[in-house]
Amino acid sequence: MTVLVSRTGAAVLTVLVFVLTTMGAATLSVLGVPAAADPASASEQTGTTDPRFLELRIDEVTPSVVTMVSEPVVTVRGTVTNIGDRDVTDVWVRLQRAPVVSTAAELRTSLSLDQAGYDTVGEFEEVADLIEQGESTEFTLELPLRSELVPSLDIETPGVYPLLVNVNGVPEYGGAARLDDARFLLPVLAVPASDEVTEDAASTGARTSNIDGAVIDVGDEAFPAVPPDVSRPAATTMLWPLADRPRLAAGLPGSHTEPVRLVDDDLASSLAEGGRLDGLLRAVEDTVRTEPRVLEGLCLAVDPDLLVTVVNMTRDYLVVDDPADPTGPARPGAGSEAASAWLERLRTLAASTCTVALPFAQVDLTALADLGDPSLTEAALVSPARIVDSILGVTSLPGVVWPDSGVLTEKTGTMLVSEGPTTALIADSAVEGGNYLLADTSGASRVPGRNGFRISGVSGLTAALFDSSASAALAGMGSDPQTPSFVPSTARYELSGDSPTARLQDALGALAWPGLLPTVNEATGRELPPAGRSVLFAPPQTWTPSPGEAGAVMSMLSSLVRAGLTTPRPLSALVDAAASTADAPSSVLLVYPEQAITDGAAAPVVTDAGEQVRRLDALQTALVEDPQAQLTPQQFTTPLREDLLRAMSLAGRRGDDPDGAAAVAEQRSVEVREAVERMYEAVTVISTGGVYTLTSEQSPLLLTARNDLPVGITVRLHVDAPEAMNITDIGPTQLPPRGSRTLTVPAQISDSRKLELEFALTTESGLPLGSPTTVTVRSNAYGQILAVVTGCAGALLLFLAGRRLLHRFRGEPDPADEGYERP
């Protein structure tokens, strides 16, 4: 079960009524200091869960990344909103800092620390005397990075620092307490110089500082700039995913005449200027012009399902009114121009950039391995590279699989190597054993080290590991923040309470951390590992940053390269290094967390996919491959097979509405099942009449076999007849596309009676097609009795004729003619 730790803390209070009884407390109020000297809330003290009163939101952090040329002051702008059931008075805020991040895990765990862990604090500043119910008030906090004269953040060296904004207030009928907080990471690439000398003093040579109107002599002390340590740059690789949740309407077989149908037209907005996919592409295009070296370590990870959809959008397409009725009313789509322009830009970019194909539609590879169907496996893992290469005109990086979940089972690994040696891109938390992380001698600090390892128990499978903490931070960005399945419970917390600004800061801090890794562990004083670090960044495949956020990520990567903190490392080099460990003596074990099971495709959908793909495979085998036809059997059935993969997609399963994603998947599964059923029902046998009358014991039966599919099919006629009737098997029969054929069925019956026969069509493998038809047969044949009677009559006729001839030969009148003599 997922464990969620509130990032804002349980900082809400039980209503406490108290009276200031000491002069000291009154004096504090007079001085403008909140009465709650201890910022812990009453709920933290009592362990109870109480209603919230205030909600704090971070709107802007300046500078978002501290560099050598930044102002030596951090400014945080935010909003405090009264979300409770009563007014709140005496609202104050202050800025606090926790120790510098020294391990990768702290990139996430430091954001769920108790506020007491943020032990470097600024002064409280008043926000408002009163915030009424439903009202909001903006605030601005400023705190210098360093100062000996006033409270500061006390940041002396580059690094990644967790910051917290703490809000205190007094709810009506209650006492002063900490009511909410917000946390974020501040990456400090360098500490800018700071000189606490006033302009007036500088003109006279005096070194003084003007603090709150008071001029103070600071002697010769000043704060020179502190540059980063660039002697240990980290080799970084960035996966840049271009993917989207499935948009094509389900249950529609392939066609060369019908336009494709989409469940909505949201993709048109995403591809247009200012949209999500436009922003992801534009961020890379801008980096090509400003810092092309970054692209050496960047690889476009492209979802073939997205490309298939966009290519179809470049032509006329329809958007259905009701996604649950894909064949129902629809309107023309509006994204053809945007799709064409975006696709051309992607082709241009991919021609000069590393490109790798993702598994089709972010399909759950664990579910795919459990099914074990070769045709689905090929559609999910082999066809994507062909699709990406043919549409973009490139050669994608071969032998690489990036599971959307970031984790693997041993069974899944065995499936991946069925086509040859494979390198899987998985989270560093998805393996255990081996020296996949370098640690200091105390074991207290772990930093990215080796990335490539052989997987134990699966021959031919190697793993390239990406930074799970950085991936979790990147996944928190955008309009649809998510927590990946591989994030351990200790680092999981609810993201909905964080503002987009705070979540972006966390991502920038995670990107900067490998290059800012301190040389000494602050907690232990031990020296950290030497150079040679390598890190792979992997956002979620369905990544939802805004265009501005995507640009900020690329800007951070560029800044790290320009500052000498990182060096780009091509993904191909990383994969080659991982593949070279295939024969290494040491290996790692795969870890499949319980959360990945929860986030995986639903069991009923997987079961249904297994049933329907078997029916599709059998039907495709029966379909006729006609070189002259526009539509081949594979083209006809492939969309439905891909729909089964879309139904098992992990897109949306880790977002804020997993139940909605599960419902969409189930509906898609139902649509595919009904579509396959319609395909089978489209081939059937029809009787030309309700009752057949056979004039002899070997009269044939005439039937009509009809095929409403746009592809020819080979069928067999199955007849359920009584023992008195013998039906000759007419063998395989080929039916033309959208046509019919008359079947002449030889039948033999031994006696005269009324019989009922059932006719049905099947594939050559025996699967029934269409609905059976029942025929009534009446026979006029008398069998052996008729033969005896006919034989006796013939013998009598011969006897009488011979007798007459004998009498004539003797010249004697025939007694039979007596009474008939001529006159």
What's the CATH first level of the largest domain? Answer: Alpha Beta
The end-to-end span amounts to 123 Å
Find the CATH superfamily of the largest domain: Glycoside hydrolase/deacetylase
Number of domains: 4
Overall structural class, as computed from helix and strand content, comes to: alpha/beta
Strand content bin: 15-25%
Query: Share of helix among residues?
Result: 25-40%
**Bulk shape:** elongated
By CATH, the topology of the largest domain is TIM Barrel
Give the helix tally. Answer: 20
Please mark out the parts with pLDDT under 50 across 5 or more consecutive residues, or reply none. Answer: 1-49, 197-221, 434-449
Q: Any guess at the CATH architecture of the largest domain?
A: Alpha-Beta Barrel
**Biggest sheet character:** 6 strands, mixed
> Within the largest sheet, what's the order of strands?
17-18-23-22-26-19
What is the β-strand count? 36
Mean pLDDT: 84
The gyration radius over C-alpha positions equals: 40 Å
Description:
The protein is an alpha/beta fold and 823 residues long. The chain has 4 domains: 23-191, Immunoglobulin-like (Sandwich); 234-518 and 528-604, TIM Barrel (Alpha-Beta Barrel); 683-781, Sandwich (Immunoglobulin-like), CATH 2.60.40; 784-817. Helices cover 29% and strands 25% of the residues. The protein has 20 helices and 36 strands. Strands 17-18-23-22-26-19 form a 6-stranded mixed β-sheet. A hairpin with a 5-residue loop joins strand 35 and strand 36. Helix 6 (276-290) packs parallel to helix 8, helix 10 (374-392) packs across helix 18 (633-647) and helix 17 runs parallel beside helix 19 (658-681). The protein is elongated. Mean pLDDT is 84; it is low at 1-49, 197-221 and 434-449.
